[in-house]
Design brief:
This protein has about 220 residues and is of the alpha/beta class. The chain has one domain: 3-Layer(aba) Sandwich (Rossmann fold). Helices cover about 25% and strands about 35% of the residues. It has seven helices and eleven strands. The strands form two sheets. Strands 7-6-5-8-9-11-10 form a seven-stranded mixed β-sheet, sandwiched between helices. A hairpin with an 8-residue loop joins strand 10 and strand 11. It is globular. The relative contact order is 0.15.
């Protein structure tokens, strides 16, 4: 087996250390000892964007917020579906993630960060949510509502945070949340916060194989 090589590391503000590894042509980011994301498993990250776009349809001048750049699969998929008059803001709390995207993972980035429709905001996604006027808010900042990368992210999944997010969406806007697994309690919290919800199970790999991941699609009532 090809050995895994450490490429770089970065500290999450008020959180643990992230490490970028490479094995052959594959890249993976670990949070302490847990694999947070991998270039071998991009299917559900792609689905987060494509399924959102399918649900929004062809409305003009869409404004999207993507919380967490990751390895750029969600952004690339969004750009492939959105028209030229769309605007996509990527909120990324860890600046090194963007550095890695332009450096050792440039092949995965495929120029997406330089697309004129894209704006990168190096700050907490909660600050960008508060700007409001979003047609879509896509969140992939944790492994799930109960598997947080940093404790401060809990706000995103609590009634108060969900209420702010609901008000930040345009009429007929859509909130999409990625998770490594289902969570019945969070589904109830979403509904109680004033959303109609749809839940979708998607495979981790682009070939339809791998672990089953979970996406909530939530529309303000």
């Amino acid at each position: 087996m090809i050995p895994r090589t450490l490429v770089a590391s970065a500290q999450i503000p008020n959180g643990p250390e992230m490490r970028l590894y490479r094995r052959g042509e594959d890249h993976m980011i670990l949070l302490e000892r847990e694999e947070l994301m991998s270039s071998r498993q991009s299917g559900s990250e792609v689905a987060l964007a494509t399924l959102t776009a399918d649900r929004l349809g062809s409305r003009p001048k869409q404004r999207w917020l993507i919380g967490g750049y990751g390895m750029g699969f969600t952004l690339r998929a969004a750009l492939s579906k959105l028209p030229q008059d769309a605007e996509v803001t990527v909120a990324e709390l860890v600046p090194e993630i963007i550095d890695w995207a332009r450096g050792p993972m440039a092949a995965l980035t495929a120029g997406g960060l330089d697309d004129p429709r894209v704006r990168v905001a190096l700050r907490d996604v909660t600050d960008e949510i508060a700007v409001g006027g979003w047609d879509a808010i896509l969140l992939d900042v944790d492994n799930g509502p109960d598997a947080l990368v940093r404790a401060q992210n809990q706000w995103l999944y609590e009634p108060g945070g969900l209420s702010v997010t609901r008000r930040a969406l345009n009429p007929k806007g859509l909130l999409a949340i990625w998770s490594a697994s289902s969570d019945a309690r969070f589904s109830k919290t979403l509904a109680a916060a004033g959303f109609s919800i749809e839940e979708k199970v998607v495979r981790a790999r682009s070939n339809g194989k791998g672990p089953r991941h979970h996406i909530w699609f939530a529309k303000p009532l």
